[in-house]
Automatic annotation (TrEMBL):
Pfam families found in the cross-reference section: Acetyltransf_7 (PF13508)
One Gene Ontology term of the molecular function aspect: acyltransferase activity, transferring groups other than amino-acyl groups
Name of the protein in its database record: Acetyltransferase (GNAT) family protein
Signal peptide positions (record): none
Organism, as annotated: Pseudomonas soli
This protein's UniProt keywords: Transferase
Family matches, as InterPro entries: Acyl_CoA_acyltransferase, GNAT_dom
Ranges where the N-acetyltransferase domain occurs: 1-125
The organism's place on the tree of life at top rank: Bacteria
Length: 135
């Protein structure tokens, strides 16, 4: 395997994450606010967003290129992005993904900041989602 780096994208390079998502047919987008993180070998192979919510973070847009899945790319990307954070990190996921996130120290929760609680309620009208928190 080629050497892997997980780094924050400078704001001026946010479009690279959007391009990565589109290249793989994903409807995800680089968040307008917050930080974008990428995993790279020779090219971007994974990405995610950390959006500020109060003093905490909301993790969205976690995506790893299909040919790189099963190689702990997502785990390494999340760990790198959250390594120096003492804030809580929230995410919404399909219930089938809960075991993956639990291995990364996320726990299911029903107590959310209001900004996320209302968003989750809206999303749950059309899909099954679980809220999880780390920290």
């Amino acid at each position: 395997m080629l050497p892997l780096t997980c780094t924050r994208l400078p704001p001026t390079q946010r479009r690279l994450l959007d391009h990565f998502y589109r290249q793989h047919g994903s409807r995800m987008r680089a968040a307008g606010e917050g930080e974008q993180w990428v995993a790279r070998t020779a090219e971007i192979i994974g990405g995610m967003n950390l959006t500020p919510i109060g003093g905490d973070h909301w993790l969205t847009g976690l995506f790893v290129a299909p040919q790189w899945r099963g190689q702990q790319i997502a785990s390494r990307l999340i760990d790198a992005a959250l390594a120096e954070s003492n804030a809580a990190t929230w995410l919404f996921c399909h219930p089938d993904l809960a075991p993956f996130y639990q291995r990364l120290a996320f726990t299911p929760t029903t107590t959310l900041p209001e900004a996320l609680a209302s968003r989750l309620a809206r999303y749950q009208r059309s899909k099954a989602l679980l809220a999880m928190r780390r920290g």
